[in-house]
């Protein structure tokens, strides 16, 4: 990806916000991953249906992550597993 930056820049202002730059670099699977795993902070207040939906979304992400380069795959596989395990735990504890 190519990002054109202006040549003249006022001191004290940001060329690109870090949020915009990070979003531009995100792949669709990575955006989904971030959205799903961000829900872990709210896991105690989620309904059973929401938890089931998040678990299903984790399952859909798994094959995509398995196709990544080895180092990236290991990191995201572990993070996804931890997110999913929390959702499963919350679902089972809310019976």
List keywords for this structure.
disordered N terminus; mainly alpha; 95 residues; elongated; 4 helices
User: What is the H/E string?
Assistant: HHHH
Estimate the strand proportion: under 5%
Radius of gyration: 18 Å
Using the alpha-carbon principal axes, give the shape: elongated
On the 0 to 100 scale, the average pLDDT is: 83
The low-confidence parts are 1-9, 13-21
Oligomeric state, counting identical vs distinct chains: single chain
- The first-to-last residue Cα distance is 47 Å
Helix content: 55-70%
Secondary-structure class: mainly alpha
Sheet with most strands: none
Number of separate structural domains: 1
Count of helical segments?
Answer: 4
> How many extended strands?
0
Structure characterization notes:
This protein is an all-alpha fold. The protein has helices at residues 18-25, 28-38, 48-66, 70-93. α3 (48-66) runs antiparallel to α4.
Topology:
Elements: H1 18-25, H2 28-38, H3 48-66, H4 70-93
Helix pairs in contact: 2-3, 3-4
Concise summary:
With 95 residues, this protein is mainly α. The protein contains four helices and no strands.
């Amino acid at each position: 990806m190519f990002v054109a930056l202006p040549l003249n820049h006022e001191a004290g202002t940001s060329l690109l916000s870090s949020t915009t730059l990070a979003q531009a670099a995100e792949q669709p699977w990575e955006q989904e991953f971030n959205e799903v795993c961000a829900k872990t902070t709210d896991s105690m207040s989620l309904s059973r249906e929401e938890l089931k939906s998040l678990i299903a979304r984790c399952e859909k992400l798994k094959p995509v992550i398995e196709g990544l380069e080895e180092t990236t795959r290991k990191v995201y596989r572990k993070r996804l597993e931890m997110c999913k395990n929390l959702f499963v735990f919350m679902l089972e504890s809310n019976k």
